[in-house]
Amino acid sequence: MxxxxxxxxxxxxxxxxxxxxxxxxxxxxxxVLLARDAGxxxxxxxxxxxxxxxxxPYRAYDVERAVDGKLTLTSGAGQNTQSxxxxxxxxxxxxxxxxxxxxxxxxxLVANVITIPNEVRNYTIKMLAFAPVPAxxxxxxxxxxxxDGFAGxxxxxxxxERVSASVIMESFDGRNGVTRTSTGPGTLYLDEGASTRLLRxxxxxxxxxxxxxxxxxxxxxxxxxxxxxxxxxxxxx
Length: 237
Known about the structure:
Blueprint: H1 15-38, E1 58-67, E2 70-75, E3 82-87, E4 94-99, E5 109-117, E6 123-132, E7 162-172, E8 176-181, E9 184-189, E10 196-202, E11 212-216, E12 229-232
C-alpha cells in the first residue's frame, strides 16, 4: 500500500475571498449608478430666467414738428411708431452737430471717431464729431465728451455705433492734423469724403423738423432735457 501525496496547502488562502469581495462591490456600485440614472428625468434642463439688457442711458427721436421749442417727436417705425409732444424751455442747453467742411475746422478741437465694428475690418467709420476742447478734457473715460456728457453717437439709429477713439487735435491744415491721444502724439487725416460734424451751442428755437435729437434719461428711462439735448441737424431725413 502506497501513501498518496497530500495536496500542498495554498500560500495565499485570502486571495480568492478578496477577489470575490471586489467583484461584489463593483456589481453593487454598478447597480447604484444604474438606479440613480434611471431616476433622472430625460427632460432638458430648465433655462435660467431671462435677464433683459440694461437700457441705454439716452433716448433718440426724430423731430416731426418744431415751433419755438415746442416739439413733436417720433420714435420707432411702421406700426410701432410712437409720437409725443415736449416743450423745451429757453434755458435748456441745446447742442447742434452740424455738417462742416474740413477746411473750416480750426484747432484746437476734440475729435471723436464714431464707428461700427466690422467683422472683416476693425471698424467702419461713420462720422468724425468735433467740438471745442472742454476745460476738463482728459483721457480717463471711454471717450472725451463733446458737451454735457454726449459722445456724438447718441442720435444714431444703429445701437452698435460707438466712439473708437477720442483725440485732441492740436493743429490742422485743412487735411492733416497733429493730435494728442491717450497713448501720446498722433496724426489725423481727413479726405474730402469724410463725414464731419462740428458741435456748437444753440437754442430750442434752432431745432427744426427733420432733425434727430437725443436726451439723457433718468433711472426709469424718462428723458431729462435739463441735462442737455444733442441735435444731429437733418439727421432724421
